[in-house]
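Posted in: Structural Biology > Protein-Ligand Complexes

Title: Requesting predicted complex, geranylgeranyl diphosphate in pocket

I'd be grateful if someone could produce the 3D structure tokens for the following input. Sequence and ligand are given below.
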Amino acid sequence: MLIEKYIQEKSHLVDKRLKELIPLNPGSLQKELFEAANYSLHSGGKRLRPILVFAALETFHEDPNVALDIACAIEMIHTYSLIHDDLPCMDNDDMRRNKPSLHKAFSEWIALLTGDYLLTYSFEVIANSHLSDAKKVKIISVIAHKIGAFGLIGGQYVDLSSENEKADWNKLEFMHINKTASLFSACLECSAIIADRNESEIRSLQNFGKNLGFAYQIVDDILDYETNDEEKATAVSILGFEEAKLKAEELFEKALSSLSTLPLSTDLLKNLANMLIKRKS
Ligand code: GRG
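-- Reply #1 --
Done. Output follows.
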């Protein structure tokens, strides 16, 4: 199946399940919270993280549907991080995905609470999913770690705390790996847990996720370079345009070679990685 068709089909499943998990509840006192969550969850996100969960499961010859709720929970976490990142006290972005960011469309306190709600609810969704208790505990532990001080939040902290400092590659690498690659890795690791894979296979997938996520973020910097005049540390501002392109290519190759140790056909993950890195927008 063409990778574009695969993505479209899986995105549709995620959209549908997210609507079931967070209905609008029009008669409720907190209905605005559900409207806000739906505004951000259904505003054109590419659903890359859920698709990584599914693609890794297919690689292990497991039914991807068993992980639908885990994939949706991860998309909720991704959405929370974008909502909070856009807030005036963080990146202060008025727009997200060509639409007003949540605090502009609703209000700042609603955006803050909606992010909190999506984050806490994601763990409830995982805990209530139909996996064994042992797998759910492992998944909760992996995700919580990868979005905490040694992952997403740590990366965001270093980003915000070094805003007025001179750009430096080591710091940028730390930020990109923690803000972007850690959640990519978490997706793949969750699938490996569900499929009962061994430690060495989990490590291969972690390396794939880390290098792919890092490369993805550098490609994002490259694409931003033409459209963005913001004074921000990016791979392009530190390495220059051509070097940044070479770095993304090198990380992409590293990501692919991490897969070569898996005793399975990894074409789906490779095709997906290829599409993410060669994208034009
Ligand atoms: C607020 C705890 C906290 C963390 C924020 C995720 C993040 C950290 C900041 C958002 C801005 C940023 C540069 C994130 C890096 C990750 C990234 C590339 C996000 C965009 O992901 P896509 O391309 O977005 O998957 P869509 O819109 O398709 O969902």
